[in-house]
Amino acid sequence: MNDAHDISRLDLNLLVVFDALLRERSVTRAGQTLGITQSAMSHSLARLRVFFDDALFIKSYRGVTPTAKAEALAPDILAIIDSIRNRVLSQAQFDASQAKRTFSLCVTDMGELVFIPPLLSRLKEVAPHCSIHTLQVPPHNMEATLASGEADLVLGSVMNAPEGLYQQELFMHPFVTIASVKNKEIGDTLSLEQFCSMPHVAVMLAGRSLRAYDSVIEDAGIKRHIAFTTPHFLFVPLLLDQHPEFLATVPQSLGTVFARHNLVKVFEPPVALPKFSLRQYWHPRFHQDRAIVWLRGLVKETFSELPEGMR
């Protein structure tokens, strides 16, 4: 083979032929898979043999069998075909039913508990070969994480989101106050007096300028005794179980999940609190990316269909 490293001499369509022959082990069946005649397949195989200076596939009683060189080439050629199908072509079009892709989402631990399960269910229905990876990043790293492609979307309520990011409101989320089922001081309702006199647990997410997630309570003019702060939503019901005298004010969806496990009682806060907006954020660099456009649509659709108590 002359000038074997000159890629311009290789018709990349021949790699598709190689892939089909490797899978089907028959010139006829490979041609049927690709929608071309057996004659065209034979011609393509002849060109492959010239380029690689090897028979590649030899006749056998079952069809064709790859040579040692074909077996050696197979992993690299299959990787090339897979990359073209799932990375290059996905930029021109995105077929969710056939795509093999891992989507990365920035969410809090609350988001993982409440929103990832229904999203995984929808993904299983419409994109069975795709998967989800979650990560957490502080707000000051949010733009860089999205710009690099390390994360495809950020889901949550981000105070002071970086300028220049696209964002879309998914729904408005109310707060609820939760108490341990072991708390015997509270009956079926929670009074303002009880709310103000009992110690509270507050979630203070990293990178939020030391502002509690439920700081709207103080904004409403209510003074409370915050006995403990944590950056972890999922620790709250466990702490309330160990210290039943504590209260916590959390997003409604989280309170619903905790109550479902018979850990807490859920109350409407005894003071009017504004709802907060849960949004998805993405970087302009990937605004037209077909796969990310599809993902944003799936997220919006999934969250729109969540029951009222979950959003």
From TrEMBL:
Keyword vocabulary terms for this entry: DNA-binding, Transcription, Transcription regulation
Superkingdom field: Bacteria
A Pfam family of this chain: LysR_substrate
InterPro entries in alphabetical order: LysR-type_TF, LysR_HTH_N, LysR_subst-bd, WH-like_DNA-bd_sf, WH_DNA-bd_sf
HTH lysR-type domain boundaries: 10-67
Molecular-function GO terms, alphabetical: DNA binding; DNA-binding transcription factor activity
Gene3D superfamilies (alphabetical): Periplasmic binding protein-like II (3.40.190.10), Winged helix-like DNA-binding domain superfamily/Winged helix DNA-binding domain (1.10.10.10)
Matching PROSITE patterns: HTH_LYSR
Similarity comment: Belongs to the LysR transcriptional regulatory family.
UniProt protein name: LysR family transcriptional regulator
Native species: Eoetvoesiella caeni
